[in-house]
């Protein structure tokens, strides 16, 4: 889904996704893959003081960090989604009150910012950042940048947890055994811009993937100009296709793995008109695809 908050210069408000980070066993290989695929350039260090910051046309779009030294041998790379909060302590307390699980917190890791890792009541982990300065994305929903953020969960009612902790407001787009999906906007509680709930743009969604043998997770969709053109390039760079590109009501979607087996999803323009394109929620190659 194309987010209306996308602008050439973007500062994430509180309760909005603010960063995506790839944890990689080989940062050099990851840099070569995403640089070759998406045209990202890189600077050091990343916004959390280590790793790399990925840039698209000079704007920050993502981070790549080395896996911890104690990571299990053979652990594949993986992407994580982080959200900005006004107070790390207050948010971690709210997570516990709402039935979630605080997992790790570093109140101050470089003198100005704090980070925490928490899990929702269904066990899906995500990160939160508190920072007074500019650290997150500086662009959104443009080519090569994150465009949409999505929770794949085994418990569709978990959105109540996110409504309590982030103040998100949900619109249920489908509620059948074949397709359960809800989109969310920040709402007045999380929107620092002063807009009303009715004006707040949709930021992401929650997909019930309980029918599929895929772990629950948060992911982001990266915007590209041509999803199909990425297929041979992904393969040339050592990646593979998980879900063949296909049209949906919200854009053409493809799901891939990179050269270190980290899954990622891209979205671009449909090849057919929206009226001719199938609705989201179809399954291709064993992967549920919906929402974007």
In short:
It is globular, with a radius of gyration of 18 Å. The protein is mostly beta strands and 292 residues long. A hairpin with an 8-residue loop joins strand 2 (41-43) and strand 3.
Plain-language structure description:
With 292 residues, the chain is mostly beta strands. Helix content is 14%, strand content 37%. It has 4 helices and 18 strands. It has helices spanning 27-38, 88-97, 159-166, 227-236, and strands at residues 17-24, 41-43, 52-56, 59-66, 78-84, 101-106, 114-119, 125-130, 146-153, 169-175, 180-185, 202-208, 217-223, 240-246, 252-257, 263-268, 283-284, 287-288. The strands form 3 sheets. The chain has an 8-stranded mixed beta sheet with strand order 2-3-4-1-5-8-7-6, covered by helices on one side. An 8-stranded mixed beta sheet has the order 10-11-12-9-13-16-15-14, covered by helices on one side. A two-stranded antiparallel ribbon has the order 17-18. The longest helix is centred in the first third of the chain and has 12 residues, at 27-38. Residues 1-7, 190-199 and 274-288 have low confidence and may be disordered.
Unreliable parts:
1-7, 190-199, 274-288
Radius of gyration: 18 Å
Report the structural category.
mainly beta
Overall residue-averaged pLDDT value: 85
Question: What share of the residues does DSSP label as strand, in percent?
Answer: 35-45%
> How many helical elements?
4
N- and C-termini, Cα separation: 4 Å
CA-based shape? globular
The topology string of helices and strands comes to: EHEEEEHEEEEHEEEEHEEEEE
How is the largest sheet built, in terms of strand order? 2-3-4-1-5-8-7-6
What does the main sheet amount to?
8 strands, mixed
Quantity of strands, as a count: 18
Share of residues in helices: 10-25%
């Amino acid at each position: 889904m194309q987010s209306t908050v996308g602008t050439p210069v973007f500062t994430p408000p509180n309760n909005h996704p603010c960063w995506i980070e790839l944890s990689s066993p080989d940062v050099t290989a990851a840099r070569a893959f995403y640089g070759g695929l998406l045209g990202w350039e890189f600077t050091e260090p990343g916004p959390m003081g280590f790793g790399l910051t990925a840039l698209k046309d000079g704007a920050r779009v993502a981070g790549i960090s080395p896996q911890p030294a104690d990571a299990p041998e053979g652990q594949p790379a993986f992407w994580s989604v982080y959200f900005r909060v006004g107070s790390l302590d207050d948010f971690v307390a709210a997570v516990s009150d709402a039935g979630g699980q605080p997992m790790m917190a570093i109140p101050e890791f470089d003198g100005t910012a704090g980070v925490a890792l928490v899990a929702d009541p269904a066990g899906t982990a995500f990160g939160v950042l508190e920072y007074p300065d500019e650290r997150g994305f500086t662009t959104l929903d443009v080519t090569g940048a994150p465009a949409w953020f999505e929770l794949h969960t085994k418990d569709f009612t978990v959105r109540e947890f996110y409504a309590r902790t982030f103040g998100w407001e949900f619109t249920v787009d489908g509620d059948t055994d074949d397709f359960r999906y809800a989109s969310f906007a920040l709402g007045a509680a999380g929107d620092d811009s002063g807009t009303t709930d009715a004006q707040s743009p949709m930021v992401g969604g929650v997909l019930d993937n309980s029918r599929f043998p895929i772990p629950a997770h948060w992911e982001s969709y990266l915007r590209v100009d041509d999803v199909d053109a990425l297929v041979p390039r992904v393969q040339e760079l050592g990646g593979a296709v998980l879900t063949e590109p296909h049209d949906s009501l919200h854009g053409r979607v493809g799901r891939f793995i990179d050269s270190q087996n980290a899954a990622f999803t891209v979205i671009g323009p449909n090849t057919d008109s929206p009226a001719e394109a199938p609705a989201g929620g179809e399954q291709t190659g064993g992967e549920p695809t919906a929402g974007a």
